[in-house]
Amino acid sequence: MAELLRVEDVHKAFDGFPAVRGAHLSVEAGRVVAVIGPNGAGKTTLFNLITGVLTPDRGRIVFAGEEIGRLPAHLRCRRGLGRTFQLATIFPRLTVFANVQVAVLARQGRSRELLRPAARFGVEETRAILEVTGLLSRADEVAGTLSHGDQRILEIAIALGSRPRLLVLDEPTAGMSPEETAATIGLIGRLARESGLTVLFCEHDMDVVFSVAESIMVMRQGRTIVQDAPEAVRRHPEVQEAYLGAAGA
Amino acid sequence: MVTVAPPRAPAVRRPAAWLVAAAVVLAAPAVLPPFYVYLGALVLVMGLLAASLNLVLGYGGLYQFHHGVFYGVGAYALALTITRLGWPAWVGILLGPLAAAAAGWAIGVFCVRLTRLYFGMLQISLGSLLWAVALRWYPVTGGDNGIHGIPLPAPLQTLSGAYVFIAVTAGLAFGALWCIVRSPFGATLQAIRDNPQRCQVVGIDVRAHQLLAIVLAAGFAGLAGVLYVVLERSVFPTMLFWVLSLEIFVMCLLGGWFTFSGPLVGAALIVVLRAFAGRHTEYWTLILGTILILLIFFMPEGVMGFVGERLRAHGRGAVGRRSAGPAAGRGTPAAVVAEGDGAADPGAGREAATPPAADDAGGTEVARG
């Protein structure tokens, strides 16, 4: 299968603290890939580097054959990189509908359209995304009033508004109840199967990771230890010591 | 869809009601004494100025601390066109908003590189430069005397003529602002206010949108400056002084900065309060200060925010709630992130600390990209 994203020996330090020092990652089109690692392993920093919230100190990030490591976030999005954040990041004062519509308008290149009402544009597509994510019945509610779990789902819906080729999810089920977690995992699996979406996510919950991921990359102290199929990762000695061992596997 | 204005009573939506309102406003000079006509015109001018600020403040979430500068630039552009260049007044009336928009671009292009408070501080600095020019360049601007008795075309020389011109122009400007707020750009601007970082990763060039909002807002402020000259036939450097900028900031907060009509209401309250309380005491700002303190405690979302909330409470269940109530979070995105940060995983250390840090450092980080 074609490789959609390749991360080669990427480094990033904050005020001398090396958060990421040698990350490698390969994501093939149409796959669901997970990144795991203990707290502070550099997972969120890696995702910020991939999506353009941060720029790497060195190393290469290649997306669909193009080096994107130096592009600002909004241009990476236009090339097909969508993401969610570890903490629910939505537009709290806008309606649920408007939250998704803003992303759809941006992708359509209409976000500087000044004089015609926004109510005319991207309505069908926005409703379709709300339908898929199960938020359609709440379209007119103010997003800030949604429950934490629904806000996380809304984040994914916003990301879908950009029609990404690769969807990057930073701990999509953090802070969710078991029921919400199951629903979210179901949604991610459905998106990957039905829309052919490529998904890259990081997660603390091992059950979640091994239930949906087709390939797992393990990080520790900013470095990539291994990337392989779930079963191979489970048997890897350094992984057992670093991570699964601590979890009592 | 994306409006933050409170739901209105259905009657106000009907064109007939708007026509009646317009007729009442335009008929004012025929029935009211001149003082009230003057006061009405002043309310419209200051209301337009405050509404233009609110495009960037309430809808854009930018701390536009020195918006008065663009009002002054518009007013001076008209005054100088007539008195120094000797060109016709209508040229100056068109040049005013354009000059103000150009000043908005020149100042905004630097300010949007900074976030929050730093944005506001830089704007005060750059704006004060223009104030100093107006204050000191005697041969051109008249220095601290300003320029008085600016000759306008005959129809604008009477109070009622000036009033009608101001009412029609301000009405059209409010209409244009309303269209902008409801447009895809307006929706995007509100999304940027709520969460700039999220906007970047859905493909929005945040700075370009903020700059466009500043240019538009400055243009409307310049138009308000032009209307002030039509009303007063004079300009003076205090129009560019930061005290006026603070006053229109207060108008927005007082009226309700998350509503469309709030700034006009706030402007009306302050202009009328000064006109009447100012007759009796030099210290009318004491009254204003007391009102502001009460407001912060009892109506933190401003007068129109409060009214909208009452209306929603009244009609809850009947009409879908479209606008943000207080439950939608008064907290800034940063506050929300900070709260979530602590709750999510106290031991997460470096990783959990990254998103809020990136949020505030967004300006610097992306600058390198």
What is the end-to-end distance of chain A? 32 Å
Topology of chain A as a string of helices (H) and strands (E): EEEHEEHEHHHEHEHEEHH
N-to-C SSE string of chain B, H for helix and E for strand: HHHHHHHHHHHHHHHHHH
Mean pLDDT of chain B: 81
> Which radius of gyration of chain A do the C-alpha atoms yield?
18 Å
CATH architecture of the largest domain in chain A: 3-Layer(aba) Sandwich
Largest sheet of chain B: none
Number of domains of chain A: 2
Largest sheet of chain A: 6 strands, mixed
- Shape of chain B from CA axes? globular
Please describe what this structure looks like.
The complex is a heterodimer of chains A (249) and B (369). By secondary structure, chain A is an alpha/beta fold. Chain A has 2 domains: 1-80 and 164-249, P-loop containing nucleotide triphosphate hydrolases (Rossmann fold, 3-Layer(aba) Sandwich); 87-163, no CATH class. Chain A is 36% helix and 25% strand. Chain A has helices at residues 43-51, 73-78, 96-107, 123-133, 148-160, 178-195, 206-212, 230-235, 237-244, and strands at 3-14, 17-28, 32-36, 58-63, 66-67, 81-84, 166-170, 198-202, 215-220, 223-228. A 6-stranded mixed sheet of chain A has the order 6-7-8-3-9-10, with helices on both faces. In chain A, a hairpin with a 2-residue loop joins strand 1 (3-14) and strand 2 (17-28). In chain A, helix 3 crosses helix 4 (123-133) and helix 3 (96-107) packs parallel to helix 5. The longest helix of chain A has 18 residues, at 178-195. The model of chain A has no long low-confidence stretch (mean pLDDT 89). Chain B is an all-alpha fold and 369 residues long. Chain B folds into 2 domains: 25-314, no CATH class; 332-369. Chain B contains 18 helices and no strands. Chain B is globular, with a radius of gyration of 22 Å. Chains A and B meet through helix 1, helix 2, strand 6 and helix 3 of A and helix 8, helix 9, helix 10, helix 11 and helix 16 of B.
